[in-house]
Design a protein that fits this description.
about 100 residues; alpha/beta; Transcription Regulator spoIIAA; five-stranded mixed beta sheet; two-stranded parallel ribbon; globular
């Protein structure tokens, strides 16, 4: 069964927001990729809302890296927001605070 990721695209500002579910893991790989690739026109910036996420695995970290590459690599404008303390600690521990705007 193909999962979906709720998203909002503000075309005026060019911002795509993805609302991640409780478990951000490998099962979301296809849905995550589809969610950021289907936005037209291409977003100027991305917001990954982790407010519902209680668990994240290494494949989720890989998915974020793939999004970064898709969005322009070093010039990508990606904000990862609303992470709980545990998830924020993981993101900091693997150095994602240097690759993404963590808020």
């Amino acid at each position: 069964m193909l999962k979906t990721i709720p998203s909002e695209f503000d075309q005026q500002r060019g911002i795509l927001t993805l609302h991640m579910p409780e478990h951000f893991d490998f099962e979301l790989h296809r849905a995550f990729r589809k969610a950021y690739r289907q936005a037209q026109p291409l977003p100027r910036a991305y917001v990954i809302d982790l407010s519902s996420v209680t668990a994240m695995d290494s494949s989720a970290l890989g998915m974020l890296l793939l999004l970064r590459e898709h969005a322009g690599g070093e010039s990508a404008d990606i904000h990862v927001v609303n992470a709980c303390n545990e998830v924020r600690g993981l993101l900091d521990a693997v150095g994602f605070d240097r690759l993404f705007m963590l808020q």
